[in-house]
Write a structure and sequence with these properties.
Blueprint lengths: L1 H12 L3 H27 L2 H27 L15
Helix pairs in contact: 2-3
Length: about 90
């Protein structure tokens, strides 16, 4: 899975970190949209879907901040497309 993410991005941007972070942010927003759609289809309530996506947003922000810390203190690489690979 990591090759599907990293190879095209490296071919387009090389070692520049900005496109990597932009793509991660786009994946994050897309996942929040999927959370909203799934909860809305289950509950038929847009309000509950917004609250659920808001809860997911807090969890994603913690992961996003954790990944930003890796820029300061490098650690082992994590695969953004595989859950559980964040260390």
């Amino acid at each position: 899975m990591g090759a599907l993410f990293y190879r095209p991005l490296f071919a387009l941007a090389g070692f520049s970190p900005l496109p990597y972070h932009v793509l991660c942010f786009v994946l994050l927003i897309g996942n929040l949209g999927l959370i909203w759609l799934a909860i809305r289809s289950i509950t038929r309530s847009p309000e509950i879907a917004v609250l659920s996506a808001n809860n997911g947003r807090h969890q994603y922000v913690m992961v996003w901040c954790g990944n930003a810390l890796h820029l300061i203190k490098p650690a082992e690489p994590a695969d953004p497309l595989c859950p559980g690979s964040q260390t």
